[in-house]
């Protein structure tokens, strides 16, 4: 210590340091003795690291998937301390675990949730399950939809895993006061996780499909899981970036916009013109429901073409070849990417000539039964799958085929302003309709003949298309009129009621609604058309999106008495006998029978038929 008062005090060079250590010994030896002793490879410590699958070191270890872990004998810090400090369980409906409770999930869990939060300012809360909690960021502008435009992500306190299913209203005056709803949820694949630095994941969302995102920390060093109140706000600032899928070309520009109000369309899509690969694909043109009588009243029977109506999932398909071998991308009517769900439809790439690429075509994915007829029930076995193993297992049981009936662009040039007859001629010369890709011919005859043939073939119905009509992407038009043989209705599931007796643990019926100008209007329930496995699976699936409040209008007290409400994200379809009228209860479905889920559609796409 005397050296500190020496007026000739100076820095030592490396030779002087070596000389002093040799003559005086290591001056830090006493400080490090205890630390080095803690690293001694005793049998007990080696057993600990063997269980962790890592070699002993001075700190934590990193598992094979990139997750940080802590040696088994180290005390586990309370990652929810900041969360609890901001909430009073007696004043908020949010889940608030008690102090000292262990995390409610596995350290290796891989769920995610994105919640739309109408607080003082609208934002989206992005949460990834990690180390038994939900690591969270607030996204003021939501997810990025363009690889060239990053969005701000502000890291907030870790949340309990139970928050992943939370929806409801946080009271005014409480932290985060406002309405919370689930915007998307599902699982993620982890590519990289470096605490306080970088996270890369591929999300598999139930509502908005698969996308690859990177979170990059831009602020100073922070304690993981801390909030902005514990330091400068910029220390919690990250960027969230939309990345290209692994081992693929440019990332698709996602059509879903966070800024759209809930339950409303985000605006009409633009028509494709010289559309680049990876750009958002247009949504398909939609037909208006009608009957033989309403179509006959339109007049000009020679001015219509008639096609068979296929009972499947609508899809817009793009084939590109600018980055090497041609690739196929499939997007549903709601904008969800369905490419990984139906890998066999990559065969479309071999059915189009290279000089015509890129092309965009419109069609229907179907699953054929033993008689070669589309079976919507069989197609359900292929719906909502994204994991490669699940897709392969389902594909071994049920194959799908693609029925094409329109073309939107060829060689990057838009055809949407061409007439139906012109587009149809181009389509028939464009695609080699063989194998599992087909271009079914339009019916050669009149309306009565088309309807009779469709009934004879046990198809769903007929679509009449005005020959002079252009393609109005994303819009419903009276220049396309669909005529169904039976009554069917797309519905939004808003809740469920349990069964009775020994089936009280299963779903007894689903509660259904259809959007109108005032919101989601209750239209009845459906309890038939389900297998026992369906009922078991529904408990799990709907449990993930359960909510406290009723999202529908005019639900009778009898139906609401034991209802379990869910976030109105999921669309299904039912057959029914008729709509009720007073005094039975106006506007309810009579004798509804469940047909299956419609993963190709969003709630805002649903409207009352007939």
Largest sheet: 8 strands, antiparallel, barrel
Structural class: alpha+beta
Kindly report the spatial arrangement of strands forming the biggest sheet: 3-4-5-6-11-10-9-8
Q: What would you give as the CATH superfamily of the largest domain?
A: DNA ligase/mRNA capping enzyme
Architecture of the largest domain, according to CATH?
A: 2-Layer Sandwich
Mean pLDDT: 80
Summarize the structure.
The chain is of the alpha+beta class and 610 residues long. The protein has helices at 14-24, 29-38, 43-52, 81-85, 292-297, 376-379, 388-397, 420-430, 447-456, 532-543, 557-560, and strands spanning 61-62, 68-69, 111-118, 122-130, 133-139, 151-155, 168-170, 178-194, 198-205, 209-217, 237-243, 286-289, 304-309, 313-320, 327-332, 359-366, 401-410, 413-414, 437-438, 461-466, 476-484, 488-498, 507-516, 519-526, 564-565, 571-575, 578-579, 589-590, 593-597. It has four domains: 2-61, no CATH class; 81-243, no CATH class; 286-484, D-amino Acid Aminotransferase, Chain A, domain 1, CATH 3.30.470; 488-605, OB fold (Dihydrolipoamide Acetyltransferase, E2P) (Beta Barrel).
């Amino acid at each position: 210590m005397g050296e500190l008062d020496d007026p000739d005090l100076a820095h030592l060079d490396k030779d002087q340091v070596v000389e002093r250590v040799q003559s005086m010994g290591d001056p830090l030896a006493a400080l490090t003795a205890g630390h080095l002793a803690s690293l001694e490879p005793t049998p007990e410590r080696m057993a600990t690291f063997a269980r962790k699958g890592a070699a002993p070191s001075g700190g934590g270890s990193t598992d094979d998937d990139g997750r940080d872990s802590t040696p088994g004998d180290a005390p586990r810090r309370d990652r929810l301390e900041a969360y609890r400090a901001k909430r009073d369980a007696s004043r908020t409906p949010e889940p608030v675990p008690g102090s000292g409770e262990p995390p409610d999930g596995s350290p290796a869990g891989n769920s995610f949730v994105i919640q739309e939060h109408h607080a003082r300012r609208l934002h989206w809360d992005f949460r990834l399950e990690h180390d038994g909690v939900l690591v969270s960021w607030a996204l003021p502008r939501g997810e990025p939809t363009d690889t060239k435009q990053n969005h701000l992500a502000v890291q907030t306190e870790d949340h309990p895993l139970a928050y992943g299913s939370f929806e409801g209203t946080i009271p005014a005056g409480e932290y985060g006061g406002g309405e919370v709803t689930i915007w998307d949820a599902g699982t993620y694949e982890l590519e990289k996780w470096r605490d306080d630095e970088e996270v890369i994941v591929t999300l598999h969302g139930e509502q908005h499909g698969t996308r690859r995102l990177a979170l990059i920390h831009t602020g100073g060093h922070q304690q993981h899981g801390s909030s902005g109140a514990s330091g400068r706000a910029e220390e919690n600032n990250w960027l969230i970036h939309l990345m290209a899928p692994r081992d693929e070309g440019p990332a698709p520009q996602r059509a879903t916009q966070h800024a759209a109000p809930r339950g409303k369309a985000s605006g009409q899509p633009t028509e494709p013109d010289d559309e680049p690969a990876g750009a958002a694909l247009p949504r398909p043109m939609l037909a208006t429901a009608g009957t033989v009588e309403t179509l006959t009243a339109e007049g000009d029977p020679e001015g219509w073409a008639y096609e068979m109506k296929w009972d499947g999932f609508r899809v817009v398909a793009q084939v590109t070849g600018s980055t090497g071998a041609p690739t196929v991308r499939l997007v549903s009517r709601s904008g969800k990417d369905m490419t990984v769900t139906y890998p066999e439809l990559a065969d479309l790439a071999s059915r189009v000539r290279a000089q015509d690429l890129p092309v965009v075509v419109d069609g229907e994915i179907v699953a054929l039964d033993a008689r070669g007829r589309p079976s919507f029930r069989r197609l359900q076995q292929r719906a909502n799958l994204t994991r490669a193993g699940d897709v392969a297992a389902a594909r071994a049981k049920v194959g799908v085929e693609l029925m094409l009936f329109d073309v939107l662009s060829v060689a990057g040039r838009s055809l949407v302003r061409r007439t139906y007859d012109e587009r149809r001629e181009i389509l028939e010369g464009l695609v080699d309709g063989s194998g599992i890709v087909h271009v079914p011919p339009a019916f050669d005859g009149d309306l009565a003949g088309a309807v009779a043939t469709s009934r004879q073939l046990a198809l769903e119905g007929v679509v009449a298309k005005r020959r002079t009509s252009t393609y109005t992407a994303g819009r419903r038009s009276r220049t396309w009129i669909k005529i169904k043989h039976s009554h069917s209705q797309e519905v939004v599931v808003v809740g469920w009621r349990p069964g009775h007796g020994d089936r009280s643990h299963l779903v007894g019926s689903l509660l259904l609604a259809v959007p109108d100008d005032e919101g989601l209007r209750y239209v009845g329930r459906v309890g038939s058309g389900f297998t026992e496995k369906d009922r078991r699976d529904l408990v799990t699936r709907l449990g993930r999106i359960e909510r406290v409040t009723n999202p529908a209008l005019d639900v009778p007290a009898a139906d609401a008495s034991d209802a379990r409400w869910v976030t109105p994200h999921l669309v299904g379809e039912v057959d029914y006998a008729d709509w009720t009228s007073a005094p039975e209860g106006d506007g309810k479905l009579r004798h509804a029978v469940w047909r299956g889920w419609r993963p190709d559609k969003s709630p805002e796409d649903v409207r009352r038929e007939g």
